[in-house]
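User: structure tokens for this one?
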Amino acid sequence: MNTLSHRTERSMFGRVLGISLGLICLFLSQEVSAQKKKTTSSDLERNKELVRSFFRATESGDFGDNFDKIVAEDYKDHLRGQEPGRDNLKAYLKGVRNGFPDMKWPIYYIIAEGDLVVVFNSFEATHANDFGPWKATGKRVKMDAFQLYRIVDGKLAEHWEIPDLVTLQKQLESK
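Assistant:
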């Protein structure tokens, strides 16, 4: 890939992420102002730790009782193509882990406000097995993503995500 097109792609992705982060902040500010109860700093830390626990469970493939304590049964995922429900989330994540068995989700930033937690993280893995339309390539991949989680009664109840799927696709399809 030439340097100019790489800069253009990173610049475009940067603009998209900037706009996305702005929209997330706007959403957060509206949600927070609508809340009736005061959230304590210990509540915010507990919410952030819940999201970290979810990431750890997903990385390790722990989709049993511990996962059920983290994720609400009626979990709603706003990622395109996702069906609601904890069992559907488990099935999706098991498929991702099958395609990328060594996947890691390093968290770079995590911010909590009210019942919401925003995460900027990456997805890093080896494409060891078939996933979606892609046959196993054996390639290492890395993409960034913004996540927004809503916590209800101590569990993850809702999720929005802005993943850099263009970068993932290019990595998987490069020769």
